[in-house]
């Protein structure tokens, strides 16, 4: 519904989807505004203050519905620009925008998503399985262009949690994106603590997203990974999300699972201060477009 100070996001679900439709998941579209509102209200009822919707261009993000859903639920929503893997995106969309990605991303961040007036608050792109293909390199190059023009964060889908270091080499090395403008998603799907630590040491934010049946994430691995990062001094770079991607996963366990199960469980393991950082302090820095004082 417009720009807000990042420190007013409150408890944040740092990666989820209210709306999404992709050829990869036929019949499992998230396309019901009333269901999205109910899910967001359930999250808000447990203290949730904001949800980052990582649904990018061409995947049924329904940007025109986001303001009234957000207002009805009383929960902030961050919209996304960007482009997912080619196989997730309708071929006609890829063909139409592939030569103007940088301009498209920048325009949706600054001018708004066409026909809606809703501005995106982040860029979402995707890597490949254990590497980067031509499509990934093209979208990340465009994302870097838009990031430099705006200060927006870049959220990266890591396929099955892999390829984090390749992504950082491209975005932060060759393309010179500040590492604290990069959010690496799905790291829980590849519980390689060595890679997690190296990505944290590089300065990126690490998103562990998907404690839902749709992604078969195992909560005990999630806890072990977060404990290891905290013990290594990287608690300040952890983000948590639900990543509900199918209609079957909505409400089962859905967004409330983060606050009903994951949050209290982590508080027992790591203490309330660290977990407040995961849900409040870290997202406020990760999603802030400001260029100064993000490390404080």
UniProtKB/TrEMBL annotation:
Zn(2+) 1 binds at residues 15, 17, 124, 243. It comes from the Bacteria. Transmembrane segments: none annotated. It holds the Pfam family PTE. The modification N6-carboxylysine is found at residue 124. Binds 2 divalent metal cations per subunit. GO terms for molecular function: hydrolase activity; zinc ion binding. SUPFAM superfamilies: Metallo-dependent hydrolases. Zn(2+) 2 binds at residues 124, 157, 186. PROSITE patterns: PHOSPHOTRIESTERASE_2 (PS51347). Its cofactor is a divalent metal cation. Keywords: Hydrolase, Metal-binding. Belongs to the metallo-dependent hydrolases superfamily. Phosphotriesterase family. This is Phosphotriesterase-related protein. It comes from Amycolatopsis xylanica. The lineage of its organism: Bacteria, Bacillati, Actinomycetota, Actinomycetes, Pseudonocardiales.
């Amino acid at each position: 519904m417009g720009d807000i100070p990042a420190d007013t996001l409150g408890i944040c679900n740092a990666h989820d989807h209210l709306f999404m439709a992709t050829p990869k998941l036929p019949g499992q579209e998230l396309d019901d505004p009333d269901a999205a509102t109910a899910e967001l209200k359930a999250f808000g009822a447990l203290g949730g203050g904001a949800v980052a919707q990582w649904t990018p261009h061409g995947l049924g993000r329904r940007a025109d519905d986001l303001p009234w859903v957000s207002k009805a639920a009383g929960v902030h929503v961050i919209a996304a620009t960007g482009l997912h893997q080619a196989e997730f995106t309708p071929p006609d969309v890829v063909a139409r925008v592939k030569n103007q990605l940088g301009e498209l991303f920048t325009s949706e961040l600054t001018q708004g998503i066409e026909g809606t007036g809703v501005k995106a608050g982040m860029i979402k792109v995707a890597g490949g399985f254990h590497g980067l293909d031509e499509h990934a390199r093209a979208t990340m190059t465009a994302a870097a262009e838009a990031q430099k023009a705006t200060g927006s964060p870049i959220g990266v889908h890591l396929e099955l949690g892999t390829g984090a270091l390749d992504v950082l080499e491209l975005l932060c090395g060759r393309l010179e994106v500040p590492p604290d403008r990069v959010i690496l998603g799905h790291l829980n799907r590849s519980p390689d603590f060595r890679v997690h630590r190296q990505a944290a040491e590089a300065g990126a934010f690490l998103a562990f997203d998907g404690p839902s049946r749709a992604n078969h994430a195992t909560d005990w691995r999630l806890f072990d990974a977060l404990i290891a990062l905290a013990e290594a001094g990287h608690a300040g770079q952890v983000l948590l999300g639900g990543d509900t991607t199918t209609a079957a996963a909505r409400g089962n366990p859905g967004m409330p699972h983060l606050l009903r199960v994951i949050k209290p469980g982590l508080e027992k393991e790591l203490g309330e201060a660290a977990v407040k950082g995961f849900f409040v302090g870290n997202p406020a820095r990760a999603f802030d477009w400001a260029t100064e004082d993000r490390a404080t």
